[in-house]
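can u do me a favor
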């Protein structure tokens, strides 16, 4: 686990992954959209964003929320580890939905090196059960 992810909470993790997956350079997410995706209130979302800003993971200006370079690297690492777990769980017979939910509970707490070992052991699949690339999703 890189030093950056070490101090994330689950909600901060969810927030960063959503920004990475749903926002784009041209169309950054706004607070209300993010709150909608996370299914939590805007004030709660704002609190999480403030903490992520302090941690150097995001910036927000004029209501638009973006990941910093560090934030993007972190989110990409979390997503990669997430997809490794999903693949492992699905190969083991767990449903896709359950695999996704449970992978989210551990992906941000796992060392990338550990995920690499798991990935190798399960046959180095190139895509996750949802069809997203496991490596280099940039
Ligand atoms: Zn998933």
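np, heres the sequence
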């Amino acid at each position: 686990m890189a030093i950056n992810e070490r101090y994330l909470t689950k909600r901060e993790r969810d927030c960063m992954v959503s920004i990475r997956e749903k926002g784009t350079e041209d169309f950054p997410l706004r607070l209300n959209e993010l709150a909608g995706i996370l299914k939590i209130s805007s004030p709660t979302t704002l609190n999480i964003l403030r903490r992520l800003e302090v941690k150097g993971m995001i910036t927000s200006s004029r209501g638009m929320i973006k990941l910093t370079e560090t934030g993007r690297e972190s989110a990409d690492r979390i997503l990669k580890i997430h997809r490794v777990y999903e693949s492992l769980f699905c190969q083991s017979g767990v449903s896709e939905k359950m695999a996704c939910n449970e992978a989210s509970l551990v992906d941000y707490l796992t060392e990338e090196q550990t995920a690499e070992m798991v990935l190798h052991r399960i046959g180095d699949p190139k895509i996750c059960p949802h069809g997203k690339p496991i490596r280099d999703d940039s």
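The pocket of zinc ion is lined by residues 82, 86, 100, 103 (CB under 6 Å). hope that helps!!
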